[in-house]
Design a protein that fits this description.
Oligomer: single chain
Number of domains: 2
CATH class of the largest domain: Alpha Beta
Radius of gyration: 19 Å
Distance between the termini: 26 Å
Number of helices: 7
Shape: globular
Helix content: 25-40%
CATH superfamily of the largest domain: HUPs
Number of strands: 12
Strand order of the largest sheet: 3-2-1-4-6-12-10-7-8-9
Largest sheet: 10 strands, mixed
């Protein structure tokens, strides 16, 4: 896991997410890129370069956040982007090859009823980069127990599982698979990718109305440090295809959530 990116918004708690990212990255000797995004357009008649001024302000804010964390031996690199966040993430990914984005559930949204705010929801929905969603106030600890929940065991590419494999190897984690049979499932959905089976310590098959309800049913018995789910049109966060924000009443956990992207269903 070479390159990890942390988008920094305007939240006063942004340093908490960055500290978690630094602690996590130190386990893998990863590089951490701290990203600030701004939008500025300078008209032809402007006497000063507005874009440069706003860019400098954005960079200053990122530096202030960095100053609040213990960087350990991690080289924190600042990247800024003028424009839309998603466009910026895709451009940086194309240039660097991002292995993981670490974000808080609500980057800029203070609504208490939300689990995923608009910004975080867009990141999960509109990019194919693996994302680790870390609840605010979460201190890093070794990930020993992982619950991987899904409604279809079909995976198009082995590399989809790479972050999960690296985490399991680093922390010698126990990976518990939870296959949730939801209404309308097919026999094909019950076939589990061999690479996923190779990772598992246990397999549970259950029937529920949604994958999330299956997670709720088995959450206490597995007591995971990390929940791993797949992002696809029929996957765990399917509501993200209709909207970016997710209510706590629809989904909420107090542990980090690893979202792996499946491009094809």
């Amino acid at each position: 896991m070479n390159n990890i990116l942390v988008p920094i918004g305007t939240s006063p708690n942004a340093h908490e997410t960055l500290q978690y990212a630094v602690d996590f990255a130190s386990e893998f000797s990863s590089r951490v890129y701290v990203m600030g995004v701004f939008t500025a357009k300078a008209g032809a008649g402007d006497l000063i370069n507005i874009s440069e001024k706003v860019a400098e302000s954005s960079k200053k804010h990122v530096k202030e956040v960095i100053e609040k964390v213990n960087a350990k031996n991690i080289d924190l690199k600042i990247v800024t982007y003028n424009g839309d966040l998603i466009d910026g993430l895709k451009e940086i990914d194309k240039e660097l090859g991002l292995d993981l984005i670490i974000i808080a559930p609500r980057c800029n949204d203070i609504k208490e009823e939300l689990y995923l705010g608009h910004t975080t929801g867009r990141i999960v929905k509109r990019t194919d980069i693996p994302a680790l969603i870390v609840p605010r106030g979460t201190n890093f600890k070794p990930i020993k127990n992982i619950l991987t929940a899904f409604k279809s065991g079909i995976l198009s590419q082995r590399r989809i599982l790479e972050p999960l494999k690296l985490i399991k190897k680093k922390f010698k984690s126990k990976v518990n698979l939870l296959l949730v049979k939801t209404p309308g499932y097919s026999d094909e959905d019950l076939k589990i990718n061999t690479s996923l089976m190779d990772l598992c310590s246990s397999l549970t098959v259950t029937e529920n109305a949604t994958t999330y309800l299956g997670v709720l049913e088995h959450f206490q018995s597995t007591n995971p440090d990390l929940l791993c789910v797949f992002r696809r049109k029929r996957g765990f966060f399917k509501n993200l295809w209709e909207k970016n924000a997710i209510l706590k009443s629809e989904f909420s956990v107090r542990i980090p959530v690893l979202v792996l992207s499946v491009k094809k269903d």
